[in-house]
Amino acid sequence: MNNYKIFISAGESSGDIHGANLMRSLLKKNPNITFYGLGKERMNEAGLHCLCDMKTKSLMWLHALTELSAFLRMKKDCVRFFQHETPCAVILIDYCGFNFQLARAAKKLKIPVIYYITPQLWAHGPWRIKKLRKLVDFLIVIYPFEKSFYETSGLPVTYVGHPLFDELDRERRINNHLSMEEKQVGEYIVSLLPGSRKQEIIRLLPLLLRAAKQIKQTIPSIKILVSCTSEQYFSLIRLIVEASHLPAEIIVGCVRKIIQSSDICLAGSGTVTLQIAYYHTPMLIVYKISPFAYFIARPFLTTPYIGLVNILANKMIVPETLMCSNNYSRLANQAIELLRNNQKRHLCIENLRSLMDDIGKPGASERAAEEIFRFLRQETQPVIVKSETNSNDKMI
């Protein structure tokens, strides 16, 4: 087996999980790989030689601006590594801001660049495809429509599925006997999932709590759960919940337990909607944005939907609300209807089940690893050159 030195960069916790799973899948196929790069706890456990301490850092640019000097040093360290160690490939995961800079530095040194979990240019940045074409040699995408989107621009691309389903499948097998949240006869459980980032929680949770209060006024027999993905944000969420004066139980971690116990989930528009869809739980999708930000962003949006499940289904299979104000009544009324109308609930569940039958299969990390090795074999194959003066082939 060939020895490989691979640089891999992931920006946040979700990328760290997917990066770790990819590393393990690559090592299964070839244990003679040494990984260097940027990652957090999960990637470090998988064998990453991290070039800097990423425990308190995020490659999201709003966060990066507060630690600009540290991030400039981090970029400098990565470029120095490229120059002195010359990895056989650079694998970038998500977050285009910082990773685009790494791609540019690698390309200057003729190091192949693979982008795994590409930025969502199809939603809000199609004009950046030209930049992507200049910086990246191979794309590995996780949504089926992304393949045709990038192929029409002439980019080498393959579709492997979403690695989230690898994690959910593993979790399901390990915690197969996980107990559900207790529910009284005739009681509904409504769960609020405001997101995993501080700004998402601050922006969305107060709105979800107001909607939940209106739901409870109409249907008193509901129990409200609030998802807290990390202990880090428990105090913040508790303050927001207490300020709402709404009886609600905060559950740290155990997202699967929350989703499976729920009659309906109110959630942000991101990857959490795929988790909810995986368990076929009815949901409402909410995206909070200021009127000014919406006015600025609207011309650049290329999809009619805001929720991933609706984008993937290419139709509205779950209700979604784009909130430009604090008018939560529409959201509450949609939730009440979905709780009371069994026909709509069953249709929502069947649509989610059908979508998951299409896209919810595990194995994305294994497929991505196979595609990376296929790409690397092509990159390292000897080139056969025909000599004009000699009939013998020359191998270089």
Can you characterise this structure?
This protein is α/β, with parallel strands linked by helices and 396 residues long. It folds into two domains: 4-163 and 363-386, Glycogen Phosphorylase B (Rossmann fold, 3-Layer(aba) Sandwich); 188-359, Rossmann fold. 49% of the residues lie in helices and 17% in strands. Strands 3-2-1-4-5-6-7 form a seven-stranded parallel beta sheet, sandwiched between helices. Strands 10-9-8-11-12-13 form a six-stranded parallel beta sheet, sandwiched between helices. Strands 14-15 form a two-stranded antiparallel sheet. Helix 11 (234-244) links the parallel strand 9 and strand 10 (249-252). Helix 4 runs parallel beside helix 5 and helix 10 (198-218) crosses helix 16 (329-340). The protein is elongated and about 65 Å long. It catalyses: a lipid X + a UDP-2-N,3-O-bis[(3R)-3-hydroxyacyl]-alpha-D-glucosamine = a lipid A disaccharide + UDP + H(+).
Task: Please give a handful of descriptors for the protein shown.
glycosyltransferase; Rossmann fold; 2 domains; 396 residues; seven-stranded parallel beta sheet; disordered C terminus; 49% helix; phospholipid binding; Lipid-A-disaccharide synthase; alpha/beta
Give the distance, in angstroms, between the N- and C-terminal Cα atoms.
21 Å
CATH top-level class of the largest domain = Alpha Beta
Instruction: State the secondary-structure class.
Output: alpha/beta
Beta-strand segment tally: 15
Task: Give the helix tally.
Answer: 18
Q: Taking strands numbered 1, 2, ... along the chain, how are they ordered across the largest sheet?
A: 3-2-1-4-5-6-7
Q: If you average the pLDDT, what whole number results? A: 86
The CATH fourth-level homologous superfamily of the largest domain: Glycogen Phosphorylase B
- Domains, number: 2
Strand content range: 15-25%
* CATH architecture identity of the largest domain: 3-Layer(aba) Sandwich
Question: How would you characterize the largest beta sheet?
Answer: 7 strands, parallel
Rg on CA atoms, Å: 23 Å
- Pick out the low-confidence regions: 382-396
Task: Determine the fraction of residues in helical runs and give it as a percent range.
Answer: 40-55%
What would the principal axes of the Cα set say about the shape? elongated
